[in-house]
Amino acid sequence: MESQTINAAEFRDAQQQQWDKASAGWKKHSDFIDSSARQISERLVELDVAAGYGEPTLTAARVAGPEGKVVSSDISEGMLAYGRERAAAEGLDNIDFVQSAAVALDFPEGSFDAAVSRWGIIFDPDGEGAAAKVRSLLEPGSRMAIASWGPPDRVPFLAVAVKTVVDRLGVAPPPPGTPGPMSRPTPETIGGLLEGGGFSDVEVEEAEVTFEMASAEEYTTFVREIAPPVTAMMAGHPENAQAETWEAITAAAAAYAGADGKVAMTNLVLLASGSA
After folding, report:
1. Cut 0.90: pTM above it
2. What angle do CA 253, 249, 123 make, to 5 degrees?
3. What are 46-69's pLDDT values in tens digits?
4. Closest residue by Cα to residue 155 from 190, 191, 207
5. What is the pLDDT of residue 44?
6. Do the beta carbons of residue 144 and residue 195 sit within 8 Å?
7. What pLDDT is attached to residue 41?
8. What is the SS3 assignment for 59?
9. Residue 102 DSSP class
10. Is 79 helix (H, G, I), strand (E, B) or coil?
11. How far apart are CA 18 and CA 163, in angstroms?
Protein backbone atom coordinates (compact mmCIF):
# COMPACT_ATOMS: atom_id res chain seq x y z
CA MET A 1 0.00 0.00 0.00
CA GLU A 2 1.32 3.43 -0.91
CA SER A 3 -0.34 5.54 1.75
CA GLN A 4 2.90 7.45 2.35
CA THR A 5 2.14 9.45 -0.80
CA ILE A 6 -1.15 10.63 0.70
CA ASN A 7 -1.57 13.52 3.11
CA ALA A 8 -3.64 11.70 5.72
CA ALA A 9 -5.21 14.81 7.26
CA GLU A 10 -6.27 16.23 3.90
CA PHE A 11 -7.53 12.82 2.76
CA ARG A 12 -9.68 12.38 5.88
CA ASP A 13 -11.04 15.94 5.57
CA ALA A 14 -12.08 15.28 1.97
CA GLN A 15 -13.68 11.98 2.93
CA GLN A 16 -15.57 13.64 5.78
CA GLN A 17 -17.07 16.15 3.36
CA GLN A 18 -17.90 13.46 0.80
CA TRP A 19 -19.59 11.17 3.31
CA ASP A 20 -21.47 14.04 4.96
CA LYS A 21 -22.90 14.79 1.50
CA ALA A 22 -23.65 11.10 0.89
CA SER A 23 -25.33 10.59 4.26
CA ALA A 24 -28.70 11.63 2.80
CA GLY A 25 -28.36 8.88 0.20
CA TRP A 26 -27.49 6.30 2.82
CA LYS A 27 -30.54 7.36 4.81
CA LYS A 28 -32.72 7.03 1.70
CA HIS A 29 -31.33 3.62 0.75
CA SER A 30 -30.64 2.19 4.24
CA ASP A 31 -33.45 -0.38 4.18
CA PHE A 32 -32.28 -1.66 0.79
CA ILE A 33 -28.61 -1.80 1.85
CA ASP A 34 -29.40 -3.48 5.16
CA SER A 35 -31.65 -6.12 3.63
CA SER A 36 -29.05 -6.88 0.94
CA ALA A 37 -26.07 -6.96 3.33
CA ARG A 38 -27.71 -8.19 6.53
CA GLN A 39 -25.69 -11.39 6.56
CA ILE A 40 -22.44 -9.39 6.51
CA SER A 41 -23.35 -7.49 9.69
CA GLU A 42 -24.51 -10.67 11.36
CA ARG A 43 -21.38 -12.57 10.40
CA LEU A 44 -19.08 -9.78 11.63
CA VAL A 45 -20.77 -9.91 15.01
CA GLU A 46 -20.65 -13.71 15.01
CA LEU A 47 -16.88 -13.41 14.52
CA ASP A 48 -16.85 -11.94 18.04
CA VAL A 49 -16.73 -8.34 17.17
CA ALA A 50 -19.09 -4.56 17.62
CA ALA A 51 -19.98 2.01 13.34
CA GLY A 52 -21.75 5.23 10.85
CA TYR A 53 -25.15 5.21 9.65
CA GLY A 54 -26.23 2.43 12.01
CA GLU A 55 -24.90 -0.86 10.75
CA PRO A 56 -23.38 -3.07 12.01
CA THR A 57 -23.83 -0.93 15.14
CA LEU A 58 -27.51 -1.78 15.60
CA THR A 59 -26.86 -5.48 15.09
CA ALA A 60 -24.10 -5.36 17.70
CA ALA A 61 -26.28 -3.40 20.13
CA ARG A 62 -29.06 -5.98 19.89
CA VAL A 63 -26.56 -8.76 20.62
CA ALA A 64 -24.96 -6.82 23.48
CA GLY A 65 -28.35 -6.31 25.12
CA PRO A 66 -29.26 -3.77 27.81
CA GLU A 67 -26.32 -4.76 29.98
CA GLY A 68 -23.82 -4.18 27.16
CA LYS A 69 -22.48 -1.01 25.60
CA VAL A 70 -21.57 -0.19 22.00
CA VAL A 71 -19.57 2.78 20.70
CA SER A 72 -20.13 3.74 17.07
CA SER A 73 -17.52 6.01 15.52
CA ASP A 74 -17.33 7.70 12.13
CA ILE A 75 -15.68 10.79 10.63
CA SER A 76 -19.02 11.94 9.18
CA GLU A 77 -21.44 13.71 11.48
CA GLY A 78 -24.14 13.30 8.86
CA MET A 79 -23.80 9.53 8.97
CA LEU A 80 -23.73 9.51 12.77
CA ALA A 81 -26.84 11.71 12.97
CA TYR A 82 -28.79 9.11 11.02
CA GLY A 83 -27.32 6.35 13.19
CA ARG A 84 -28.63 8.13 16.28
CA GLU A 85 -32.03 8.51 14.62
CA ARG A 86 -32.23 4.81 13.83
CA ALA A 87 -31.12 3.78 17.31
CA ALA A 88 -33.78 6.02 18.88
CA ALA A 89 -36.46 4.59 16.58
CA GLU A 90 -35.57 1.08 17.77
CA GLY A 91 -35.39 2.09 21.41
CA LEU A 92 -31.70 1.14 21.64
CA ASP A 93 -30.12 3.27 24.35
CA ASN A 94 -26.90 1.28 24.76
CA ILE A 95 -25.01 3.05 21.94
CA ASP A 96 -22.69 6.06 22.11
CA PHE A 97 -22.10 7.78 18.74
CA VAL A 98 -18.68 9.45 18.48
CA GLN A 99 -17.38 11.58 15.63
CA SER A 100 -13.73 10.62 15.23
CA ALA A 101 -11.23 9.03 12.92
CA ALA A 102 -10.20 5.61 14.18
CA VAL A 103 -6.64 6.75 14.84
CA ALA A 104 -7.94 9.53 17.10
CA LEU A 105 -10.34 7.51 19.27
CA ASP A 106 -9.89 8.59 22.88
CA PHE A 107 -10.62 5.77 25.31
CA PRO A 108 -8.51 4.03 27.95
CA GLU A 109 -6.59 0.96 26.83
CA GLY A 110 -8.55 -2.26 27.18
CA SER A 111 -11.92 -0.49 27.19
CA PHE A 112 -13.63 -2.88 24.78
CA ASP A 113 -14.03 -6.63 24.32
CA ALA A 114 -14.79 -6.57 20.57
CA ALA A 115 -14.51 -4.32 17.49
CA VAL A 116 -16.01 -4.39 14.01
CA SER A 117 -15.71 -2.33 10.85
CA ARG A 118 -17.97 -3.00 7.87
CA TRP A 119 -16.39 -1.31 4.83
CA GLY A 120 -14.99 1.43 7.05
CA ILE A 121 -11.35 1.02 8.05
CA ILE A 122 -10.42 0.30 4.41
CA PHE A 123 -11.08 4.00 3.68
CA ASP A 124 -8.48 5.19 6.18
CA PRO A 125 -5.21 6.43 4.66
CA ASP A 126 -3.39 4.60 7.46
CA GLY A 127 -5.40 1.42 7.81
CA GLU A 128 -2.70 -0.41 9.75
CA GLY A 129 -2.32 2.55 12.13
CA ALA A 130 -6.09 2.64 12.63
CA ALA A 131 -6.10 -1.10 13.35
CA ALA A 132 -3.26 -0.68 15.83
CA LYS A 133 -5.19 2.07 17.61
CA VAL A 134 -8.29 -0.09 17.87
CA ARG A 135 -6.20 -3.02 19.11
CA SER A 136 -4.86 -0.84 21.95
CA LEU A 137 -8.45 -0.22 23.07
CA LEU A 138 -9.32 -3.92 23.19
CA GLU A 139 -8.86 -6.32 26.05
CA PRO A 140 -6.11 -8.87 25.32
CA GLY A 141 -7.49 -11.79 23.38
CA SER A 142 -10.47 -9.84 22.07
CA ARG A 143 -11.36 -10.07 18.40
CA MET A 144 -11.72 -7.47 15.67
CA ALA A 145 -13.52 -8.21 12.41
CA ILE A 146 -13.52 -6.07 9.26
CA ALA A 147 -15.06 -6.27 5.81
CA SER A 148 -13.74 -5.29 2.38
CA TRP A 149 -15.03 -5.58 -1.16
CA GLY A 150 -13.16 -7.93 -3.48
CA PRO A 151 -11.42 -7.09 -6.78
CA PRO A 152 -13.26 -5.06 -9.45
CA ASP A 153 -14.15 -8.06 -11.59
CA ARG A 154 -16.01 -9.52 -8.58
CA VAL A 155 -17.71 -6.28 -7.46
CA PRO A 156 -19.82 -5.13 -10.41
CA PHE A 157 -21.98 -2.72 -8.43
CA LEU A 158 -18.92 -0.46 -8.11
CA ALA A 159 -16.84 -1.59 -11.09
CA VAL A 160 -19.52 -0.86 -13.70
CA ALA A 161 -19.68 2.78 -12.63
CA VAL A 162 -15.94 3.24 -12.10
CA LYS A 163 -15.00 1.68 -15.46
CA THR A 164 -17.54 3.84 -17.27
CA VAL A 165 -16.18 7.01 -15.67
CA VAL A 166 -12.63 6.01 -16.59
CA ASP A 167 -13.59 5.22 -20.19
CA ARG A 168 -15.85 8.23 -20.76
CA LEU A 169 -13.91 10.96 -19.00
CA GLY A 170 -10.36 9.66 -19.33
CA VAL A 171 -9.96 9.72 -15.58
CA ALA A 172 -7.14 7.55 -14.28
CA PRO A 173 -8.43 4.87 -11.89
CA PRO A 174 -7.18 5.14 -8.32
CA PRO A 175 -3.68 3.60 -8.00
CA PRO A 176 -3.62 0.18 -6.31
CA GLY A 177 -3.76 0.57 -2.55
CA THR A 178 -5.48 3.96 -2.60
CA PRO A 179 -7.83 3.99 0.41
CA GLY A 180 -11.33 3.19 -0.74
CA PRO A 181 -13.94 0.47 -1.21
CA MET A 182 -11.68 -1.89 -3.21
CA SER A 183 -8.32 -0.97 -1.70
CA ARG A 184 -7.96 -4.32 0.09
CA PRO A 185 -9.41 -6.71 -2.50
CA THR A 186 -7.57 -9.95 -1.65
CA PRO A 187 -7.27 -12.16 1.43
CA GLU A 188 -3.60 -11.12 1.70
CA THR A 189 -4.29 -7.37 1.67
CA ILE A 190 -7.32 -7.36 3.97
CA GLY A 191 -5.69 -9.83 6.36
CA GLY A 192 -2.48 -7.84 6.15
CA LEU A 193 -4.28 -4.74 7.42
CA LEU A 194 -5.04 -6.50 10.70
CA GLU A 195 -1.63 -8.12 10.89
CA GLY A 196 -0.02 -4.73 10.29
CA GLY A 197 -2.01 -3.43 13.24
CA GLY A 198 -0.58 -6.12 15.49
CA PHE A 199 -3.44 -8.63 15.42
CA SER A 200 -2.68 -12.35 15.50
CA ASP A 201 -4.52 -15.51 14.42
CA VAL A 202 -5.92 -13.60 11.44
CA GLU A 203 -8.49 -15.48 9.37
CA VAL A 204 -10.17 -14.42 6.12
CA GLU A 205 -13.36 -15.81 4.61
CA GLU A 206 -15.54 -14.96 1.61
CA ALA A 207 -19.18 -13.93 1.40
CA GLU A 208 -21.44 -12.43 -1.24
CA VAL A 209 -23.86 -9.51 -1.35
CA THR A 210 -26.40 -9.31 -4.17
CA PHE A 211 -27.99 -5.99 -4.95
CA GLU A 212 -31.27 -6.37 -6.84
CA MET A 213 -32.77 -3.22 -8.33
CA ALA A 214 -35.91 -2.58 -10.33
CA SER A 215 -34.05 -1.11 -13.31
CA ALA A 216 -30.73 0.14 -14.63
CA GLU A 217 -31.91 3.68 -13.89
CA GLU A 218 -32.47 2.73 -10.26
CA TYR A 219 -28.94 1.31 -10.12
CA THR A 220 -27.51 4.62 -11.33
CA THR A 221 -29.50 6.58 -8.76
CA PHE A 222 -28.30 4.23 -6.03
CA VAL A 223 -24.62 4.58 -6.94
CA ARG A 224 -24.93 8.32 -7.44
CA GLU A 225 -26.37 8.81 -3.97
CA ILE A 226 -24.29 6.40 -1.85
CA ALA A 227 -20.85 6.08 -3.53
CA PRO A 228 -18.69 9.21 -3.01
CA PRO A 229 -15.61 7.60 -4.66
CA VAL A 230 -17.55 7.47 -7.95
CA THR A 231 -18.90 11.01 -7.80
CA ALA A 232 -15.48 12.32 -6.74
CA MET A 233 -13.97 10.90 -9.93
CA MET A 234 -16.33 13.13 -11.96
CA ALA A 235 -15.72 16.28 -9.95
CA GLY A 236 -14.30 19.12 -12.02
CA HIS A 237 -15.72 17.91 -15.33
CA PRO A 238 -18.39 19.94 -17.16
CA GLU A 239 -21.96 19.25 -16.06
CA ASN A 240 -22.98 18.02 -19.49
CA ALA A 241 -20.08 15.54 -19.52
CA GLN A 242 -21.09 14.29 -16.10
CA ALA A 243 -24.72 13.90 -17.20
CA GLU A 244 -23.65 11.95 -20.28
CA THR A 245 -21.45 9.74 -18.10
CA TRP A 246 -24.34 8.91 -15.77
CA GLU A 247 -26.39 7.98 -18.83
CA ALA A 248 -23.54 5.74 -19.98
CA ILE A 249 -23.45 4.12 -16.54
CA THR A 250 -27.15 3.32 -16.85
CA ALA A 251 -26.52 1.75 -20.27
CA ALA A 252 -23.66 -0.34 -18.87
CA ALA A 253 -25.78 -1.53 -15.95
CA ALA A 254 -28.44 -2.73 -18.38
CA ALA A 255 -26.12 -5.64 -19.21
CA TYR A 256 -27.06 -7.06 -15.80
CA ALA A 257 -30.79 -6.77 -16.41
CA GLY A 258 -33.10 -9.72 -16.90
CA ALA A 259 -36.03 -9.95 -19.28
CA ASP A 260 -38.14 -8.03 -16.76
CA GLY A 261 -35.64 -5.16 -16.67
CA LYS A 262 -34.57 -5.85 -13.09
CA VAL A 263 -30.84 -5.55 -12.41
CA ALA A 264 -29.03 -8.04 -10.17
CA MET A 265 -25.36 -7.73 -9.26
CA THR A 266 -23.60 -10.26 -7.01
CA ASN A 267 -20.50 -8.90 -5.27
CA LEU A 268 -17.64 -10.54 -3.38
CA VAL A 269 -17.03 -9.51 0.22
CA LEU A 270 -13.95 -10.45 2.24
CA LEU A 271 -14.26 -10.81 6.01
CA ALA A 272 -11.10 -10.74 8.11
CA SER A 273 -10.83 -11.24 11.85
CA GLY A 274 -7.94 -11.31 14.29
CA SER A 275 -7.07 -11.44 17.99
CA ALA A 276 -5.71 -8.51 19.97
Report:
1. no
2. 95
3. 554 434 444 577 777 887 787 788
4. 207
5. 73
6. no
7. 73
8. helix
9. G
10. helix
11. 20
